[in-house]
């Protein structure tokens, strides 16, 4: 099942990604229209969807990615994991972490899969990421059972304003990564049952067609289940909560010389089986 956020309404996306159907309408009012509430009823929604057999490719309307918002637009909690690929830790010159380094991104930075990215300074970097959304409360969850608490996964970017992020003496990770539009996600949420192997998804970031990041989520230091097990050992995770899982090597700030985004740059981020998102950079300084 694929769920998207179209103008604040939950919609079902066809298997070929070409069309959609309004969830409230096709469920005769049982689910929706608001997106956040569907995560509190995720198991019920999956059961209903499996029983309907709706052919959305022929009954739905045409889908325009630019009309979509973040798949979970109002999470109670947002988690982001740093240094979660060995090659990214290496390029940053930092040791591989023994526990997931965790910070947050605020919901004011959320955006849909396509649109303009306002650059507040000349030191904005890119970070392609797999994003997981919780579908069932997770409290002290064992790693072997962690995937069952995930509603689905989507494509994300953890755009980072490096100057503010690295301002000391205490770095401002969360603030530097939470400018408006710095957390685009989408184009839709893909449920785990649609993926042959959710632990091994090819991930890629391109700028103006040039591949700048290319890896697989199989290379995560801490897999999605390990992240959920760790976080839920500290506090409960709630339906709709969003987890940015980390970025592979290839970020601009680690290059010599450093490379940052500029007006006119087009950033495309793709994950196999999940689709892609696209931002066009514009300056606001």
UniProtKB/TrEMBL annotation:
PANTHER family: FUMARYLACETOACETATE HYDROLASE DOMAIN-CONTAINING PROTEIN 2A, FUMARYLACETOACETATE HYDROLASE DOMAIN-CONTAINING PROTEIN 2A-RELATED
Keyword Cell membrane: no
Name this polypeptide is given: Fumarylacetoacetate hydrolase family protein
Keywords: Hydrolase, Metal-binding
One Pfam family named in its UniProt record: FAA_hydrolase
Domain of life, source organism: Bacteria
Transmembrane spans: none
Family: Belongs to the FAH family.
Molecular function (Gene Ontology), one example: hydrolase activity
Domain Fumarylacetoacetase-like C-terminal: 78-280
